[in-house]
Amino acid sequence: MLNSLASAAWRYRYFILASIQGDFRSRVARSRLGFLWIILVPLAQVAIYAFILSALMTQRLPGIDNRFAYSLYLLAGFSGWFLFLEVINRCVTIFLDNAEALKKIAFPRIVLPIIVVGSSVINNLVFFGLVVLAYVLLGHDPLPAIAWYPLLTLITAAGAAGLGLSLGVLNVFMRDVGQIVGIALQFGFWMTPIVYMVDILPESVRPILMLNPMYWVLDSYHRTFLYGLPPQPLALLGLSVLAVGLLALALMLFRRASAEMVDVL
């Protein structure tokens, strides 16, 4: 199964690249600000939290001699969260959004999630470039972030793609899935230490947060981006195994449901 899907994706590699390029262009076309919209929306969200919570949270970041410590913390966390969020949201509706193409054009359906992931990674890379620039301007060393970014991006995107594609297949047959995912992501945002530090919570609550895989994803981003430390090896191993498992589950569901999806759509 894996070989046939990989072969199909390779045969359509130029279509995939052209689609990713077209998706990127569509985001900046017909707009005066164009390219800036890719970074303005996430940057605005970071700025809101920094403005409201900076005075309260900065003192919770020991070991960082920078008055913009909380802003640095937010940029690190959102670098991982925005990628996860975009891949999940787009994969959940991927088959519904492309229903007409699936009915009228003969092409391997597996190229659709590849296009989504490729486009999301490029958008995230643009935001990461902004993060590196901000770190330099704020006097924080960006080199550890640059060194670990490719691996963390690969693990985050793979896990999100596996989960998102599984949910996307289910969403074809049970349209409530898309609504549930939206609520779950809001809940997951606050169950992940993105805009707050774990040490502000009661100790009895912290083990519950650690059951959330995104806790460890964001912990890796914070360790590398903020403190210049490598991710915890066990965390990386666990996240990698989970990402592979989610991708395997997604491919299994995709293969079993592929023949029926077009009829349902």
TrEMBL record:
GO MF annotation, one: ABC-type transporter activity
Residue ranges annotated for the ABC transmembrane type-2 domain, each copy included: 33-257
GO cellular component labels: plasma membrane
Keywords: Cell membrane, Membrane, Polysaccharide transport, Sugar transport, Transmembrane, Transmembrane helix, Transport
Source superkingdom: Bacteria
Bilayer-spanning residue ranges: 35-56, 68-89, 110-136, 148-173, 180-198, 234-254
Membrane topology of the entry: Multi-pass membrane protein
PROSITE patterns, per the entry: ABC_TM2
Localisation per UniProt entry: Cell inner membrane; Cell membrane
UniProt-listed GO biological process terms: lipopolysaccharide transport; polysaccharide transport
Primary site of residence: membrane
Keyword Transport: yes
PANTHER family: CAPSULE POLYSACCHARIDE EXPORT INNER-MEMBRANE PROTEIN CTRC, INNER MEMBRANE TRANSPORT PERMEASE
Record family assignment: Belongs to the ABC-2 integral membrane protein family.
Name of protein: Transport permease protein
Taxonomic lineage from the root: Bacteria, Pseudomonadati, Pseudomonadota, Alphaproteobacteria, Hyphomicrobiales
